[in-house]
Protein: KIB1-4 beta-propeller domain-containing protein
Organism: Rhynchospora pubera
Amino acid sequence: MEPDWAHLLPELVSIISKKISIIKEYVNLRAVCKPWRETLTPRPLHLPHQVPWLMLPRGSPDDFRKNGIDDSYITFYDLSRSTIHRFELPFLSGKYICGSSHGWLILEHDYRLSLLNPITRTSIKLPSFSDVSTNLVIGYKRKRSDSFNEKRRYKRCIRKVILSSNPSEPGCVVVARFKSLGSLLYYCRIGDSSWTKLRADVGQNPALSPMWDFIFQNNLVFTMNFKGEVTIYDLENLSVKTFPSRLMLNNACYNLVQGVGEFGGPLVVKHSVDSEKTSFSVYEWVNNGEPKWCQVKNIGKQVLFINLFKSLPVLSSANLQLENWQGNQICYHAWRPMTSEYFQIDINCVNLESRKDVENIHSPTDEFPRKSGATLWLTPSLI
């Protein structure tokens, strides 16, 4: 007789689950049968940090609506296994994806943000921001063929959003930057009914020094402007401090990334393209009496996953320590034109100290229309 795996002792099923280190395999294990699903927790804590998935380009809700295409699907490229994961998520329909943080997607729709975990399909609605500014709503000029009663097209209001922690944990803070409000930031906590503006530093003039990027680090919000100046917001005591910087931005682009270095400050990754070659420099924010940016060439066992951009940043990057990966690396993706209408995505990895490319990094083979939306890294999470 063939064995009935559904009657396997729960203790043995639990032991098997501890041998699994990849989220997708754990999800498949729980899907074997009902007894196994009842035995295994849906939120395992033993899984190591996961290699981020790359969300492949997709169109905007307006494009999907115009072409009559279902926009409830989303596709990820699993870098660790060179495989594609496709999810049908009805909650995604009609919404803009404006970032990811702690394994959750940040969605925008009708003057409201929502959080969605694509693995667990859990969603969280955040307060409406329709009353944050009267300048958020931007109409568009109708063509004569448009119906007079047609609803105005919704245009995105959010430039970037970050989370302080996993939103399922108590005290999670959401910080958002609006497109029409320059360098001002607003925040809310899960369960709040409205957004609160972060207090600006005395003498700070956002118009003279517009913000470049911002990030959470050690429960503090760090922002950096075009001069390299750093402003630190403490949401507990509502204090704010600004520090000068000798970091020369020049014409390069920068990403702020959470750091785990010796001084516990954030990292800034400078990247520039010269003769079709992307070069990187990494600086750590050191505050040991004289706060400043210090260049580092070794970030230990960490791997930085960077979203490259040519204008103001929209999406967050990730800093992880991964099993079976050599450290001190920067992983990034670039768009490679194939024809005048289509492009492919190249995923590259470079050693920060030797400046040499890491081999055996596979890229997706799909081709995407040039009008497709942005890509982003998502670190899969079951929490």
Q: What stands out?
A: Confidence is low (pLDDT under 50) at residues 134-151. Residues 354 and 362 are 21 Å apart (CA to CA). The longest helix spans residues 10-18.
